[in-house]
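Thread: Modeling a multi-component assembly for a lab meeting

Hi all, long-time lurker, first post. My supervisor asked me to bring a structural picture of a complex we are working on to next week's group meeting, and I have zero experience with this. I have the sequence lines for every component (408 residues in total). Could someone generate the structure of the whole assembly? Inputs are pasted exactly as I received them:
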Amino acid sequence: MIETEAPLSLILFSGTDDKLSAAAVLAVGAAAMGRPVNVFLQYYAVEAFRSDRIHADHGVALEASIAQAKQVAAYPGQHWSELLRQAKELGDVKIHACALSMEMFHLEKCDLDPIVDDVEGVAAFMTDASGPITFI
Amino acid sequence: MIETEAPLSLILFSGTDDKLSAAAVLAVGAAAMGRPVNVFLQYYAVEAFRSDRIHADHGVALEASIAQAKQVAAYPGQHWSELLRQAKELGDVKIHACALSMEMFHLEKCDLDPIVDDVEGVAAFMTDASGPITFI
Amino acid sequence: MIETEAPLSLILFSGTDDKLSAAAVLAVGAAAMGRPVNVFLQYYAVEAFRSDRIHADHGVALEASIAQAKQVAAYPGQHWSELLRQAKELGDVKIHACALSMEMFHLEKCDLDPIVDDVEGVAAFMTDASGPITFI
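Re: Modeling a multi-component assembly
Sure thing. I ran the full set together rather than chain by chain. Output:
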Protein backbone atom coordinates (compact mmCIF):
# COMPACT_ATOMS: atom_id res chain seq x y z
CA MET A 1 0.00 0.00 0.00
CA ILE A 2 1.01 3.62 -0.49
CA GLU A 3 2.50 5.17 2.64
CA THR A 4 1.21 8.37 4.24
CA GLU A 5 4.46 10.08 3.33
CA ALA A 6 4.06 9.44 -0.40
CA PRO A 7 5.26 12.53 -2.27
CA LEU A 8 2.67 14.83 -3.84
CA SER A 9 3.74 15.88 -7.33
CA LEU A 10 1.70 18.74 -8.72
CA ILE A 11 1.90 20.02 -12.26
CA LEU A 12 0.38 23.49 -12.36
CA PHE A 13 -0.72 24.35 -15.89
CA SER A 14 -3.50 26.84 -15.24
CA GLY A 15 -2.68 30.37 -14.08
CA THR A 16 -6.03 31.47 -12.67
CA ASP A 17 -6.24 32.45 -9.00
CA ASP A 18 -8.88 29.83 -8.13
CA LYS A 19 -6.86 26.86 -9.39
CA LEU A 20 -3.63 28.23 -7.92
CA SER A 21 -5.42 28.61 -4.57
CA ALA A 22 -6.74 25.04 -4.72
CA ALA A 23 -3.20 23.84 -5.48
CA ALA A 24 -1.66 25.91 -2.67
CA VAL A 25 -4.15 24.56 -0.12
CA LEU A 26 -3.26 21.02 -1.22
CA ALA A 27 0.45 21.76 -0.88
CA VAL A 28 -0.04 23.13 2.65
CA GLY A 29 -2.11 20.09 3.61
CA ALA A 30 0.46 17.66 2.24
CA ALA A 31 3.38 19.49 3.85
CA ALA A 32 1.59 19.49 7.22
CA MET A 33 1.26 15.71 6.95
CA GLY A 34 4.94 15.27 6.25
CA ARG A 35 4.54 14.51 2.56
CA PRO A 36 7.25 15.93 0.30
CA VAL A 37 5.74 18.19 -2.37
CA ASN A 38 7.12 18.77 -5.87
CA VAL A 39 5.49 21.54 -7.84
CA PHE A 40 6.19 21.93 -11.58
CA LEU A 41 5.00 25.16 -13.21
CA GLN A 42 4.00 24.99 -16.87
CA TYR A 43 2.35 27.31 -19.37
CA TYR A 44 0.06 29.93 -17.77
CA ALA A 45 1.08 28.98 -14.23
CA VAL A 46 4.67 30.05 -14.93
CA GLU A 47 3.52 33.51 -15.95
CA ALA A 48 1.45 33.80 -12.78
CA PHE A 49 4.69 33.47 -10.75
CA ARG A 50 6.36 36.45 -12.46
CA SER A 51 7.61 38.68 -9.67
CA ASP A 52 6.03 41.74 -11.30
CA ARG A 53 2.61 40.08 -11.51
CA ILE A 54 2.34 37.50 -8.73
CA HIS A 55 -0.11 39.67 -6.74
CA ALA A 56 -2.02 40.87 -9.80
CA ASP A 57 -5.54 39.66 -10.53
CA HIS A 58 -5.13 36.42 -12.50
CA GLY A 59 -8.86 35.87 -12.95
CA VAL A 60 -10.82 32.71 -12.35
CA ALA A 61 -11.80 29.69 -14.45
CA LEU A 62 -13.91 30.79 -17.40
CA GLU A 63 -16.72 28.48 -16.36
CA ALA A 64 -17.36 30.68 -13.30
CA SER A 65 -20.59 32.67 -13.48
CA ILE A 66 -20.38 36.38 -12.66
CA ALA A 67 -21.93 35.67 -9.24
CA GLN A 68 -19.41 32.90 -8.55
CA ALA A 69 -16.45 35.01 -9.66
CA LYS A 70 -17.56 37.74 -7.24
CA GLN A 71 -17.85 35.28 -4.36
CA VAL A 72 -14.41 33.82 -5.07
CA ALA A 73 -12.88 37.32 -5.20
CA ALA A 74 -14.67 38.39 -1.99
CA TYR A 75 -13.43 35.41 0.03
CA PRO A 76 -10.96 36.75 2.61
CA GLY A 77 -8.46 33.89 2.44
CA GLN A 78 -4.71 34.23 2.13
CA HIS A 79 -3.12 34.69 -1.27
CA TRP A 80 -1.94 31.44 -2.86
CA SER A 81 1.64 32.69 -2.95
CA GLU A 82 1.50 33.21 0.82
CA LEU A 83 0.08 29.72 1.34
CA LEU A 84 2.89 28.26 -0.76
CA ARG A 85 5.42 30.21 1.30
CA GLN A 86 3.92 28.66 4.44
CA ALA A 87 3.99 25.19 2.87
CA LYS A 88 7.72 25.67 2.21
CA GLU A 89 8.26 26.60 5.87
CA LEU A 90 6.22 23.62 7.07
CA GLY A 91 7.88 20.90 5.06
CA ASP A 92 9.84 19.69 2.08
CA VAL A 93 8.20 21.71 -0.72
CA LYS A 94 10.04 22.52 -3.95
CA ILE A 95 8.75 24.70 -6.78
CA HIS A 96 10.27 24.23 -10.21
CA ALA A 97 9.56 26.20 -13.38
CA CYS A 98 9.41 24.17 -16.61
CA ALA A 99 12.39 25.05 -18.84
CA LEU A 100 10.33 24.67 -22.00
CA SER A 101 7.56 26.99 -20.78
CA MET A 102 10.16 29.55 -19.67
CA GLU A 103 11.55 29.57 -23.20
CA MET A 104 8.05 29.78 -24.67
CA PHE A 105 7.29 32.97 -22.72
CA HIS A 106 10.85 34.38 -22.96
CA LEU A 107 11.36 34.30 -19.20
CA GLU A 108 14.53 34.00 -17.13
CA LYS A 109 14.80 32.68 -13.57
CA CYS A 110 15.26 36.28 -12.31
CA ASP A 111 11.85 37.24 -13.74
CA LEU A 112 10.13 34.87 -11.30
CA ASP A 113 9.26 35.35 -7.65
CA PRO A 114 11.96 33.92 -5.34
CA ILE A 115 9.41 31.36 -4.11
CA VAL A 116 10.36 29.43 -7.27
CA ASP A 117 13.41 27.31 -6.48
CA ASP A 118 14.76 26.64 -9.95
CA VAL A 119 14.14 25.99 -13.63
CA GLU A 120 14.30 22.41 -14.80
CA GLY A 121 13.30 20.16 -17.67
CA VAL A 122 10.55 17.59 -17.62
CA ALA A 123 13.09 14.75 -17.32
CA ALA A 124 14.51 16.23 -14.10
CA PHE A 125 11.02 16.79 -12.70
CA MET A 126 10.02 13.23 -13.46
CA THR A 127 13.08 11.87 -11.71
CA ASP A 128 11.75 13.46 -8.51
CA ALA A 129 8.13 12.77 -9.37
CA SER A 130 8.59 9.06 -9.95
CA GLY A 131 5.14 8.29 -8.58
CA PRO A 132 1.66 9.75 -9.08
CA ILE A 133 1.20 13.15 -10.70
CA THR A 134 -1.69 15.54 -10.08
CA PHE A 135 -2.33 17.92 -13.00
CA ILE A 136 -4.12 21.15 -12.11
CA MET B 1 3.86 -2.10 -6.87
CA ILE B 2 0.51 -0.41 -6.35
CA GLU B 3 -2.28 -2.84 -5.53
CA THR B 4 -5.48 -3.11 -7.53
CA GLU B 5 -7.44 -1.93 -4.53
CA ALA B 6 -5.55 1.37 -4.26
CA PRO B 7 -8.01 4.12 -3.31
CA LEU B 8 -9.06 6.61 -5.98
CA SER B 9 -9.08 10.13 -4.59
CA LEU B 10 -10.83 12.63 -6.84
CA ILE B 11 -10.86 16.37 -6.31
CA LEU B 12 -13.70 17.82 -8.36
CA PHE B 13 -13.09 21.50 -9.02
CA SER B 14 -15.01 22.02 -12.25
CA GLY B 15 -18.80 22.14 -12.20
CA THR B 16 -19.60 21.49 -15.86
CA ASP B 17 -21.67 18.45 -16.78
CA ASP B 18 -19.02 16.91 -19.05
CA LYS B 19 -16.27 16.86 -16.41
CA LEU B 20 -18.70 15.72 -13.71
CA SER B 21 -19.80 12.89 -16.03
CA ALA B 22 -16.21 11.85 -16.70
CA ALA B 23 -15.58 11.83 -12.94
CA ALA B 24 -18.73 9.83 -12.21
CA VAL B 25 -17.83 7.19 -14.79
CA LEU B 26 -14.39 6.88 -13.17
CA ALA B 27 -15.96 6.51 -9.73
CA VAL B 28 -18.29 3.76 -10.96
CA GLY B 29 -15.39 1.95 -12.64
CA ALA B 30 -13.23 2.15 -9.51
CA ALA B 31 -16.06 1.06 -7.20
CA ALA B 32 -16.81 -1.91 -9.46
CA MET B 33 -13.19 -2.98 -9.11
CA GLY B 34 -13.31 -2.82 -5.34
CA ARG B 35 -11.30 0.40 -5.05
CA PRO B 36 -12.40 2.77 -2.30
CA VAL B 37 -13.28 6.18 -3.76
CA ASN B 38 -12.92 9.54 -1.99
CA VAL B 39 -14.47 12.50 -3.74
CA PHE B 40 -13.74 16.06 -2.55
CA LEU B 41 -15.91 18.83 -3.99
CA GLN B 42 -14.32 22.25 -4.38
CA TYR B 43 -15.27 25.54 -6.01
CA TYR B 44 -17.74 25.18 -8.92
CA ALA B 45 -18.26 21.46 -8.30
CA VAL B 46 -19.75 22.21 -4.87
CA GLU B 47 -22.35 24.49 -6.39
CA ALA B 48 -23.26 21.81 -8.95
CA PHE B 49 -24.30 19.54 -6.04
CA ARG B 50 -26.80 22.06 -4.62
CA SER B 51 -30.06 20.15 -4.19
CA ASP B 52 -31.99 22.89 -6.00
CA ARG B 53 -29.70 22.78 -9.03
CA ILE B 54 -28.20 19.30 -9.30
CA HIS B 55 -30.35 18.43 -12.33
CA ALA B 56 -30.02 21.87 -13.92
CA ASP B 57 -27.94 22.40 -17.06
CA HIS B 58 -24.38 23.03 -15.82
CA GLY B 59 -22.96 23.57 -19.30
CA VAL B 60 -19.84 22.02 -20.78
CA ALA B 61 -16.17 22.99 -20.92
CA LEU B 62 -15.77 26.31 -22.72
CA GLU B 63 -13.41 24.75 -25.24
CA ALA B 64 -16.32 22.74 -26.70
CA SER B 65 -17.43 23.88 -30.14
CA ILE B 66 -21.15 24.43 -30.66
CA ALA B 67 -21.32 21.13 -32.57
CA GLN B 68 -19.51 19.29 -29.77
CA ALA B 69 -21.70 20.83 -27.07
CA LYS B 70 -24.79 19.65 -28.95
CA GLN B 71 -23.42 16.10 -29.27
CA VAL B 72 -22.55 15.97 -25.56
CA ALA B 73 -26.04 17.20 -24.62
CA ALA B 74 -27.73 14.77 -27.03
CA TYR B 75 -25.93 11.71 -25.65
CA PRO B 76 -28.54 9.59 -23.84
CA GLY B 77 -26.37 8.49 -20.91
CA GLN B 78 -27.37 8.60 -17.26
CA HIS B 79 -26.97 11.80 -15.28
CA TRP B 80 -23.70 12.02 -13.35
CA SER B 81 -25.57 12.24 -10.06
CA GLU B 82 -27.28 8.94 -10.85
CA LEU B 83 -23.94 7.33 -11.74
CA LEU B 84 -22.49 8.53 -8.44
CA ARG B 85 -25.49 7.10 -6.59
CA GLN B 86 -24.81 3.74 -8.29
CA ALA B 87 -21.11 3.98 -7.40
CA LYS B 88 -22.10 4.43 -3.74
CA GLU B 89 -24.28 1.32 -3.92
CA LEU B 90 -21.52 -0.69 -5.60
CA GLY B 91 -18.69 0.05 -3.22
CA ASP B 92 -16.99 2.25 -0.67
CA VAL B 93 -17.57 5.70 -2.18
CA LYS B 94 -17.63 8.84 -0.04
CA ILE B 95 -18.42 12.37 -1.24
CA HIS B 96 -17.15 15.26 0.86
CA ALA B 97 -17.75 18.98 0.31
CA CYS B 98 -14.77 21.26 0.99
CA ALA B 99 -15.46 23.41 4.07
CA LEU B 100 -13.61 26.38 2.62
CA SER B 101 -15.58 26.31 -0.66
CA MET B 102 -18.85 25.96 1.30
CA GLU B 103 -17.96 29.14 3.17
CA MET B 104 -16.96 30.89 -0.04
CA PHE B 105 -20.37 30.27 -1.62
CA HIS B 106 -22.32 30.71 1.66
CA LEU B 107 -23.62 27.15 1.62
CA GLU B 108 -24.70 24.84 4.45
CA LYS B 109 -24.73 21.04 4.37
CA CYS B 110 -28.56 21.11 4.04
CA ASP B 111 -28.25 23.07 0.77
CA LEU B 112 -26.54 20.09 -0.87
CA ASP B 113 -28.02 16.94 -2.37
CA PRO B 114 -28.04 14.05 0.15
CA ILE B 115 -25.55 12.21 -2.09
CA VAL B 116 -22.93 14.38 -0.37
CA ASP B 117 -21.88 12.64 2.85
CA ASP B 118 -20.38 15.51 4.80
CA VAL B 119 -18.43 18.76 4.85
CA GLU B 120 -14.77 18.55 5.76
CA GLY B 121 -11.54 20.50 5.59
CA VAL B 122 -8.61 19.76 3.32
CA ALA B 123 -6.63 18.25 6.21
CA ALA B 124 -9.35 15.67 6.89
CA PHE B 125 -9.62 14.86 3.18
CA MET B 126 -5.89 14.38 2.90
CA THR B 127 -5.86 12.01 5.86
CA ASP B 128 -8.11 9.69 3.83
CA ALA B 129 -6.43 10.55 0.52
CA SER B 130 -2.93 9.75 1.67
CA GLY B 131 -1.97 8.47 -1.79
CA PRO B 132 -2.44 9.75 -5.34
CA ILE B 133 -4.92 12.51 -6.11
CA THR B 134 -6.73 13.05 -9.40
CA PHE B 135 -7.82 16.66 -9.98
CA ILE B 136 -10.73 17.13 -12.39
CA MET C 1 7.11 3.28 -1.65
CA ILE C 2 6.15 3.68 -5.28
CA GLU C 3 8.75 2.30 -7.67
CA THR C 4 10.33 4.33 -10.43
CA GLU C 5 8.65 2.10 -12.96
CA ALA C 6 5.15 2.85 -11.71
CA PRO C 7 2.82 3.16 -14.70
CA LEU C 8 1.64 6.63 -15.74
CA SER C 9 -2.06 6.60 -16.55
CA LEU C 10 -3.24 9.72 -18.32
CA ILE C 11 -6.84 10.57 -19.05
CA LEU C 12 -6.91 13.23 -21.75
CA PHE C 13 -10.19 15.14 -21.64
CA SER C 14 -9.19 18.47 -23.14
CA GLY C 15 -8.53 18.78 -26.84
CA THR C 16 -6.54 22.03 -26.97
CA ASP C 17 -3.01 21.97 -28.35
CA ASP C 18 -1.39 23.32 -25.17
CA LYS C 19 -2.79 20.61 -22.90
CA LEU C 20 -2.15 17.89 -25.48
CA SER C 21 1.46 19.12 -25.75
CA ALA C 22 1.88 19.07 -21.96
CA ALA C 23 0.52 15.52 -21.91
CA ALA C 24 2.76 14.38 -24.76
CA VAL C 25 5.87 15.77 -23.07
CA LEU C 26 4.91 13.87 -19.90
CA ALA C 27 4.42 10.66 -21.88
CA VAL C 28 7.84 11.01 -23.52
CA GLY C 29 9.47 11.68 -20.14
CA ALA C 30 7.79 8.67 -18.54
CA ALA C 31 8.60 6.36 -21.46
CA ALA C 32 12.25 7.46 -21.37
CA MET C 33 12.37 6.46 -17.70
CA GLY C 34 10.98 3.02 -18.42
CA ARG C 35 7.51 3.74 -17.03
CA PRO C 36 4.64 2.12 -18.91
CA VAL C 37 2.17 4.76 -20.11
CA ASN C 38 -1.58 4.28 -20.59
CA VAL C 39 -3.40 7.10 -22.33
CA PHE C 40 -7.21 7.21 -22.37
CA LEU C 41 -8.84 9.73 -24.72
CA GLN C 42 -12.18 11.19 -23.69
CA TYR C 43 -14.46 13.95 -24.91
CA TYR C 44 -12.65 16.73 -26.82
CA ALA C 45 -9.33 14.86 -26.80
CA VAL C 46 -10.85 12.06 -28.90
CA GLU C 47 -11.90 14.52 -31.58
CA ALA C 48 -8.39 16.00 -31.64
CA PHE C 49 -7.07 12.59 -32.72
CA ARG C 50 -9.34 12.38 -35.78
CA SER C 51 -7.06 11.57 -38.69
CA ASP C 52 -8.58 14.39 -40.76
CA ARG C 53 -7.92 16.99 -38.04
CA ILE C 54 -4.95 15.85 -35.99
CA HIS C 55 -2.69 18.55 -37.47
CA ALA C 56 -5.38 21.23 -37.49
CA ASP C 57 -5.25 24.17 -35.07
CA HIS C 58 -6.99 22.94 -31.90
CA GLY C 59 -6.61 26.25 -30.08
CA VAL C 60 -5.34 26.81 -26.57
CA ALA C 61 -6.94 26.98 -23.13
CA LEU C 62 -9.47 29.81 -23.00
CA GLU C 63 -7.69 31.40 -20.05
CA ALA C 64 -4.74 32.28 -22.35
CA SER C 65 -4.42 35.98 -23.09
CA ILE C 66 -3.98 36.98 -26.73
CA ALA C 67 -0.27 37.58 -26.09
CA GLN C 68 0.11 34.16 -24.45
CA ALA C 69 -1.76 32.38 -27.23
CA LYS C 70 0.59 33.97 -29.77
CA GLN C 71 3.68 32.89 -27.82
CA VAL C 72 2.38 29.32 -27.50
CA ALA C 73 1.65 29.19 -31.25
CA ALA C 74 5.04 30.69 -32.13
CA TYR C 75 7.02 28.15 -30.09
CA PRO C 76 8.90 25.94 -32.53
CA GLY C 77 8.48 22.65 -30.69
CA GLN C 78 7.37 19.36 -32.23
CA HIS C 79 3.69 18.64 -32.68
CA TRP C 80 2.17 16.66 -29.80
CA SER C 81 1.25 13.81 -32.14
CA GLU C 82 4.90 13.51 -33.17
CA LEU C 83 5.98 13.49 -29.50
CA LEU C 84 3.48 10.72 -28.77
CA ARG C 85 4.80 8.74 -31.74
CA GLN C 86 8.30 9.06 -30.26
CA ALA C 87 7.03 8.01 -26.84
CA LYS C 88 5.60 4.85 -28.42
CA GLU C 89 8.97 4.08 -30.03
CA LEU C 90 10.80 4.70 -26.74
CA GLY C 91 8.74 2.53 -24.47
CA ASP C 92 5.52 0.79 -23.55
CA VAL C 93 2.97 3.48 -24.46
CA LYS C 94 -0.62 2.62 -25.34
CA ILE C 95 -3.29 5.05 -26.52
CA HIS C 96 -6.93 4.04 -26.08
CA ALA C 97 -10.03 5.93 -27.18
CA CYS C 98 -12.97 5.87 -24.76
CA ALA C 99 -15.83 3.82 -26.25
CA LEU C 100 -18.47 6.09 -24.73
CA SER C 101 -16.89 9.26 -26.14
CA MET C 102 -16.56 7.61 -29.56
CA GLU C 103 -20.29 6.92 -29.50
CA MET C 104 -21.03 10.45 -28.32
CA PHE C 105 -19.22 11.98 -31.32
CA HIS C 106 -20.33 9.24 -33.78
CA LEU C 107 -16.75 8.13 -34.45
CA GLU C 108 -15.37 4.76 -35.56
CA LYS C 109 -11.84 3.47 -34.96
CA CYS C 110 -11.01 4.12 -38.64
CA ASP C 111 -11.77 7.83 -38.18
CA LEU C 112 -8.85 8.16 -35.76
CA ASP C 113 -5.13 8.54 -36.46
CA PRO C 114 -3.32 5.17 -36.40
CA ILE C 115 -1.40 6.40 -33.33
CA VAL C 116 -4.51 5.35 -31.38
CA ASP C 117 -4.19 1.65 -30.55
CA ASP C 118 -7.80 0.74 -29.86
CA VAL C 119 -11.20 1.68 -28.51
CA GLU C 120 -12.08 0.45 -25.05
CA GLY C 121 -14.48 1.04 -22.19
CA VAL C 122 -13.65 2.65 -18.87
CA ALA C 123 -13.64 -0.75 -17.13
CA ALA C 124 -10.93 -2.07 -19.46
CA PHE C 125 -8.89 1.11 -19.03
CA MET C 126 -9.11 0.90 -15.26
CA THR C 127 -7.94 -2.70 -15.28
CA ASP C 128 -4.68 -1.43 -16.79
CA ALA C 129 -4.70 1.79 -14.79
CA SER C 130 -5.07 0.12 -11.41
CA GLY C 131 -2.94 2.82 -9.75
CA PRO C 132 -2.83 6.62 -9.88
CA ILE C 133 -4.60 8.52 -12.65
CA THR C 134 -3.60 11.92 -14.00
CA PHE C 135 -6.52 13.83 -15.57
CA ILE C 136 -5.54 16.49 -18.10
